[in-house]
């Protein structure tokens, strides 16, 4: 079976190894979410068993999505991810809308949220005024964009370094925590007893919003597939290995949080990692974790800045985005105009951003729409293009992808009911893409 070809106009080099791709997934996923969202999850699910169930469900749901994306990414080892899949499976309009939603709502929105989150965390850590959160966030976005503009190897090196630190430090935190003797194993005891009565089904669905936000980035490597060596083999492996590492770390950290803090105390905690470390290791431990959160957010910001511009770049290669966005710097071999464009959109969103929770639900709803479309593309391409080389075939097809579709559609419906304003904003962004597509398509 021959290796699928790249886009004929793509001038990006295949410089990323399997290790780079795995750590890109880890750096994209493990950011601020695992520290900042457990308090909100405990508010919606005040039971240890339900908390573990939500994080486990989120990991398994992401894994099923990874099975579909592994086949799609190996079939089309190109920049752009779901833009490419929907364009090939249905129509250029479908691809454009997926790319438009991913670029503006998911990636630029995530860069903005991470920038604001980093600015607020750094200001709090140093005792500065919280009013500095926005300017600090803007500086962080510009600096990360410049780093990735200078070469994909620089961005990948930063991702590898921060990912290594994250994995080693978080596993060490989880392993050492029980030996402090300052927590209570009884906090973890009622894993099943009373779980069904602790919260209504809609609360579980709403709790999946911060959980899925924390897993955002599990498919990062498919967006840079045109820069990964041996993509037919390495794209699927990067998804599975990276996601397995992230899920294991998330479950370990939740066990540490609940060992240190009963659910009643965990509820509403703005930074569960810092609160748990303070209980287990004292004030110094809390400060250490607070500093680590800064590094973690910065690492995820850098990974997202690396991945996002490839969407606009891929659309521009097909003439469906602003002219010039498909330019590749002659010396650095990076999509410099696309990187600058994402930075500008993200900074605009930073200025408009109101709060982390609202941005979280808005982004999560957009993610659900995009992932449902990805899975539908898998079915369409199996029927319409059975002859295409498929270095990897999705395990469990057609049943597991069908379960993924149903689960994501159900969560999206729950978010639309529970968070109608955020869902409406994401839907309006999607609809706004239709006239923009026709403008580009007419040129």
Number of domains: 1
State the CATH superfamily name: Amino acid/polyamine transporter I
Helix amount, in percent?
Answer: over 70%
Number of contiguous helices: 19
Q: Nearest-angstrom radius of gyration?
A: 21 Å
**Given the helix and strand composition, which structural class is it?**
mainly alpha
Arithmetic mean pLDDT: 89
Shape annotation: globular
Low-confidence parts, pLDDT < 50 over ≥5 residues? none
Order of helix and strand elements from N to C terminus: HHHHHHHHHHHHHHHHHHH
CATH topology name = Amino acid/polyamine transporter I
**Biggest sheet record:** none
State the oligomer. Answer: single chain
Task: Give the strand content.
Answer: under 5%
CATH-level-2 architecture: Up-down Bundle
Task: Give the number of DSSP strands.
Answer: 0
- CATH level 1 name: Mainly Alpha
End-to-end gap: 37 Å
Question: Can you describe what's shown?
Answer:
The chain is an all-alpha fold and 443 residues long. The chain has a single domain, classed as Up-down Bundle (Amino acid/polyamine transporter I). 74% of the residues lie in helices and 0% in strands. The protein contains 19 helices and no strands. The mean pLDDT is 89.
């Amino acid at each position: 079976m021959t290796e699928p070809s790249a886009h004929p106009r793509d001038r990006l080099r295949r410089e990323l190894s399997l290790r780079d791709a795995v750590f890109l997934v880890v750096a994209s996923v493990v950011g601020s979410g695992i520290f900042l969202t457990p308090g909100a999850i405990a508010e919606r699910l005040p039971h240890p068993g339900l908390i573990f169930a939500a994080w486990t469900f989120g990991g398994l749901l992401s894994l099923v999505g990874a099975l579909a994306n592994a086949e799609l990414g190996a079939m089309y080892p190109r920049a752009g991810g779901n833009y490419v899949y929907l364009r090939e499976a249905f129509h250029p309009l479908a691809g454009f809308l997926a790319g438009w939603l991913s670029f503006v709502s998911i990636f630029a929105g995530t860069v903005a949220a991470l920038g604001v989150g980093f600015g607020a965390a750094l200001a709090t850590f140093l005792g500065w005024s919280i009013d500095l959160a926005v300017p600090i966030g803007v500086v962080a976005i510009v600096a990360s964009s410049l780093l990735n503009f200078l070469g994909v190897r620089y961005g990948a090196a930063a991702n590898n370094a921060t990912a290594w630190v994250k994995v080693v430090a978080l596993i060490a935190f989880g392993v050492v925590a029980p030996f402090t003797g300052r927590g209570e194993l009884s906090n973890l005891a009622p894993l099943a007893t009373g779980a069904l009565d602790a919260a209504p089904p809609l609360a579980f669905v709403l709790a999946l919003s911060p959980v899925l936000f924390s897993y955002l980035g599990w498919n990062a490597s498919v967006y840079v597939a045109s820069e990964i060596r041996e993509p037919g083999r390495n794209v699927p492996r990067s998804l599975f290995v990276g996601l397995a590492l992230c899920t294991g770390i998330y479950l370990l950290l939740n066990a540490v949080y609940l060992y240190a803090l009963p659910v009643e105390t965990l509820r509403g905690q703005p930074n569960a990692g810092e609160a748990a470390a303070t209980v287990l290791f004292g004030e110094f431990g809390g400060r250490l974790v607070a500093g680590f959160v800064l590094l973690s957010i910065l690492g995820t910001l850098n990974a997202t800045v690396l991945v996002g511009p490839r969407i606009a770049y891929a659309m521009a290669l097909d003439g469906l985005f602003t002219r010039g966005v498909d330019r590749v710097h002659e010396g650095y071999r990076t999509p410099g105009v696309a990187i600058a464009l994402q930075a500008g959109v993200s900074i605009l969103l930073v200025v408009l951003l109101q709060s982390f929770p609202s941005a979280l639900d808005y982004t999560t709803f957009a993610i659900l729409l995009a992932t449902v479309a990805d899975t539908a593309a898998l079915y369409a391409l199996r029927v319409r293009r059975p002859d295409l080389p498929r270095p990897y075939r999705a395990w469990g097809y057609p049943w597991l992808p069908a379960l993924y579709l149903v689960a994501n559609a159900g969560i999206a419906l729950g978010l639309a009911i529970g968070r109608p304003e955020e869902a409406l904003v994401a839907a309006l962004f999607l609809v706004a893409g239709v006239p923009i597509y026709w403008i580009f398509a007419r040129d």
